[in-house]
Amino acid sequence: MRPPILFPVFADIRTLPGVGPKIAPLVERAAGPHLVDLLWHLPTGLVDRRFSPLVAEAPAGAIVTLRLTVVAHAKPRTSRLPYKVRCEDSSGPIDLVFFHARGDYLEKQLPVGEMRVVSGRIERYRDDVQMAHPDHIATPDRFDEVASVEPVYGLTAGLSPKVLSKAIRAAVAKAPELPEWADAALVARSGWMSWRAAIERAHAPADEADTKPETPWRRRLAYDELLANQLALALVRLSQKRRKGRAMKGDGRLREKVLGALPFRLTGSQLQALAEILGDMAAPGRMQRLLQGDVGSGKTVVAFLAMLNAVECGKQAALMAPTEILARQHFDTIRPLAELAGIEVAVLTGRDKGKAKAAVIEGLASGRINAVVGTHALFEESVGFDDLGLAVIDEQHRFGVHQRVAFAAKGLSEDGEVDTLVMTATPIPRTLVMCAYGDMDSSKLPEKPPGRKPIKTVAVPLERMDDVIDGIARQIDRGARVYWVCPLVEESEVVDLAAATDRHAALASRLGEGRVHLIHGKLKAAQKDAAMAAFVEGPPGVLVATTVIEVGVNVPSATVIVIEHAERFGLAQLHQLRGRVGRGEAESSCVLLYGQPLGETAKARLSILRETEDGFRIAEEDLRLRGAGEVLGTRQSGLPEFRLADLAVHADLLEIARDDARLAIERDPKLEGPRAAALRTLLYLFERDAAFKLARVG
Ligand code: ADP
Ligand code: MG
């Protein structure tokens, strides 16, 4: 139940003065449907109306507040001409100019012979001074009110600043004092004001600096939002951990077999990650672990060894990938290893039909199949396991925290006994891990397997395309396989396709038909397979691709990647793409073809990419250059959309919030203690957070 103290906060915006049926949808679009949305709609800047010169001294372009006497109304002869009201002060005349004006209304507002306070922007045409559509017209007694500092708010088309400001002022006046949820010591140490006082102060800036995220009031509000996020995650985490799991402690016989036969030894970080995973699996609680590592850092091997641990315990294991191609590739990686171990593995994707599919379904249900690799098809109702022990989800940013919890709740683990390992192929900045995966434990693979040669990365302007193609022709003669990536232009898939098709044709005429292949999202699965097979098994050549190859194509013999219009890709995406090469023994290279002129951010992206191959560093730079929302793409990631917190500025607060939330939940897991009422109020305040609902608190 919502705490009664929050009723006014969640009142409909229509209860505010001036927000009628016409205005309400606009206010809702700009801020949101409830009073609290207006409270959180913080000023983006301010207008200073304190400058009050004489008309003759008012500079063009300045915002001023004037004391004027109304002299005469000049009504327009046609409705296309403006309505002018002639006014003056002791220094000279000024015209107030109105387009599409209703005369009777203006006559009431500006009666001839009376004094008015008028505020707006000064315009000058030769000797004439005028002001078009003043922002304020008031009686002289309200001078101080008008000649003040006014917050500026984000608007939406059709909504006037005055109307929105008035609604926000009214909302702030109605905001209740709420119980203090933040840790008392933290509040004291930071010199923070109460929630209500912080809201009030944030909406009353006296200068530009007052609207910055570094101010104590904005930091306080940001902290509230982060604390709510971390509390929700801590609760989800607790509810997952509490669920009955099964201790899976295999005897290692299958793992030994495979490890003994691998042509390499696990790296230190692989060994450590594996130990962390096996530790979780051996514990009675349910594993919820994230395995982060760059493309090629060796996650799949680690995951497979964990799957073997489940099989050693007589359980089944499943690996789920976001796409068909990836699922097939994981299967290809895993199949030889499974043969070494002598276990039964299968693959199941949307493409499998009929007898083959039926056989897999039967094998999973009977327990004959020990491990399965697949796509969402694994969630189909017809698929049931005999005894699933471990689910590995190769996430690639396709699923977020809410989906993860939903999966766990509904599909694979009805009884809550399935350990879950989530693999992400793009390292995620630390702060985002805390917000999006804060419910999980985390293992990292920061080092690459030994013997990998660095990928030579160069940036070349598009004008030099011909040179690049010549270079590629020479490389192909020497046996290279080359990816050529065409950018996705978001506006139109048709255009993208055309670009890729054109490039394919151009390269084919230069290098020979049989040497250039094309793959894109619109192809049927069988056509994709054919193109991939031709590229991998045919004579050395080029695979022209739209970004479909980003999601994990693995061709170890490919050694060159050309990325056309590299400036249109994000940093993490470029890093992912580059990771398609450098997977084999041979030297690899990456050519970033860029269009000119190059913006500052694009320039920075390309130079970071030339400097480093460290995915964790690239992820942090990506966050710095783009901001949190864009890094994961909030919609897909399940990353909460923060309205008050800015992770680029408030990262320190996030750490404090995480520790505080975990401590609070540890001390009082049912939220019953003395601070609980306040914490519940906070959670309800940010109740949009679905993770919180999933945790079913209260
Ligand atoms: P990821 O899943 O992180 O992209 P993979 O597990 O698919 O990485 O490993 C990429 C390649 O590196 C595979 O060919 C794999 O056999 C190889 N590999 C994995 N671990 C090691 C290691 N410790 N030493 C050498 N090669 C390794
Ligand atoms: Mg892999």
Overview of this structure, please?
There is one protein chain. This protein has 698 residues and is of the alpha/beta class. The protein has 4 domains: 4-46 and 154-211, no CATH class; 50-147, Nucleic acid-binding proteins (OB fold (Dihydrolipoamide Acetyltransferase, E2P)), CATH 2.40.50.140; 253-445, P-loop containing nucleotide triphosphate hydrolases (Rossmann fold, 3-Layer(aba) Sandwich); 455-612, P-loop containing nucleotide triphosphate hydrolases (Rossmann fold, 3-Layer(aba) Sandwich). The model is unreliable at 409-414, 631-638 and 694-698 (pLDDT under 50). It starts with 23 loop residues before the first helix and ends with a helix. Helix 18 links the parallel strand 19 (516-519) and strand 20 (542-545). The strands form 4 sheets. The chain has a 7-stranded mixed sheet. Bound molecules: adenosine-5'-diphosphate and magnesium ion. Magnesium ion binds at residues 299-300. The site of magnesium ion has 2 residues, from helix 11.
What is the count of helical runs?
Answer: 26
Q: So, the CATH homologous superfamily of the largest domain?
A: P-loop containing nucleotide triphosphate hydrolases
- Name the strands of the widest sheet in spatial order: 6-7-4-3-2-5-8
On the 0-100 scale, what is the average pLDDT? 86
Q: Can you list the ligands bound to this structure?
A: adenosine-5'-diphosphate, magnesium ion
Structural class designation: alpha/beta
**Which fold name fills CATH's third level, the topology of the largest domain?**
Rossmann fold
**General shape:** globular
Helical amount: 40-55%
Instruction: Determine the N-to-C terminus distance.
Output: 7 Å
